[in-house]
Design goal:
Elements lengths: L20 E2 L11 H4 L17 H8 L10 E4 L1 H15 L5 E8 L5 H7 L3 E8 L2 E2 L1 H8 L2 E7 L11 H14 L2 E5 L19 E6 L12 E4 L3 H12 L7 H11 L3 H24 L12 E2 L6 H12 L1 E2 L1 E2 L9 E4 L4 H17 L1
Parallel strand pairs: 1-11, 3-4, 3-6, 6-7, 7-8
Antiparallel strand pairs: 2-9, 4-5, 8-9, 10-13, 12-13
Length: about 350
């Protein structure tokens, strides 16, 4: 079948029809911790909040990051606003390299657009088996003002080695390059603990969307020991979005108070789903990397545009085109759905593959 329908995420987002199996969504289907809900019955504060974010939340975050105070953080409308504000702030600064941002390919599909919106040019370092080629990285980073690191990665599910992350620390520190480390999946690593990139121009970006399943509350944050950058971000946020959702911040603070077993239990659920999705697709003959974190797989597919559209129209299964993520010969599947749906979705994909 020749694809003529225009394919974009807008075709699939919000499609909750009966019988549709969506491997497209990048949001957890698991509930937030019960502690987050306990804020609701008695909450009555609905006035403007601090632009930098609720101080009690920032104080709680400071306990999780080295050498930090509440002033090392800005609470944002999700990780996306944090990325946007930092990119625009860095674009306005005098600094090493030209106004370019180095990012890996495959990449999270908003990165190139955000870079361009900030007035900067995206530059790509291709990966080897989904992991950074440090030699290629080192060659290209010298001409860039900033780099974006995303480990664990959306869309690959790969986790960079600690040796690679430490080498990136060294290279960027020597050059004075800004590092934007997108760590929204840092608590969803199956193989080891997270490694926190550090340095004078490192900005770590995180949110409550993945760890605590609070996507719709839009509570994210950035952490940096670069006091000037933090101040510049606050100044820009003052005139863009003002404060972040104050009820969401209260619920985020309550979520931090959940027992550590909440994260451990959810990680085990993700691990089981990872194994089901990975082995299920491998058994169907797909060539794919085994995810070490996050909740995505990125198999190779022949005629991916036909695959995505035909699977959707004939079998009511949603997948995302790899080309949206800089991987034109692949498709992305999220396993952020319960086991029964993953199994049913794999059955439908198997039937489709036999029809091709």
């Amino acid at each position: 079948m020749k694809t003529t329908t225009k394919l974009s995420p807008a075709l699939f987002i919000g499609d909750e029809r009966e019988g549709v199996i969506s491997f497209g969504s990048g949001q957890p289907d698991l509930p937030p911790p019960p502690e987050a809900y306990r804020v609701l019955p008695d909450y009555r504060a609905f006035k403007y909040g601090l632009i930098q974010g609720m101080e009690r939340l920032r104080q709680a975050l400071a306990l999780q990051y080295p050498d930090s105070t509440a002033d090392s953080f800005v609470v944002t409308n999700g990780a996306s606003e944090a990325l946007d504000l930092v990119l625009r702030t860095v674009a306005r600064k005098d600094g090493p390299g030209s106004k370019k941002v180095l990012m890996t390919r495959p990449y999270y599909y908003s990165y190139p657009h955000m870079a361009e919106f900030s007035g900067m040019k995206p530059v790509f370092t291709d990966t080897v088996e989904g992991l950074i080629d440090i030699d290629d990285f080192e060659t290209k980073v010298a001409d860039c003002r900033a780099v974006i690191i995303n480990s664990p990665s959306n869309p690959t599910g790969r986790v960079e080695s600690i040796a690679t992350l430490k080498r990136i620390e060294e290279i960027t520190m020597d050059l004075g390059t800004y590092v934007l480390s997108d760590e929204v999946y840092k608590d969803l690593i199956y193989e080891r603990e997270n490694y926190l990139i550090q340095g004078p121009h490192v900005v770590t970006i995180n949110s409550f969307s993945k760890t605590y399943a609070m996507c719709g509350f839009r509570v994210g944050y950035l952490w940096s020991l670069d006091e000037e950058l933090v101040a510049d971000v606050i100044a820009m946020k003052t005139h863009c979005s003002m404060n972040t959702n104050i009820l969401g911040q209260e619920m985020a603070l309550a979520a931090i108070g959940a027992p550590e077993s909440f994260i451990d239990d959810q990680l085990e659920i993700w691990r089981q789903r990872r194994d089901l999705a990975y082995h299920g697709l491998a058994d169907l003959g797909f060539d794919l990397w085994k995810p070490e974190g996050a909740f995505y797989v990125l198999p190779k597919v022949e005629r991916p545009r036909d695959f995505v559209l035909d699977l959707y129209e004939r079998h009511k299964v949603i997948t995302y085109l790899g080309e949206w993520f800089g991987a034109p010969n692949r498709v992305r599947l999220s396993y952020a759905l319960d086991v029964d749906k993953i199994e049913e979705g794999l059955d439908r994909i198997g039937r489709y593959m036999r029809e091709r």
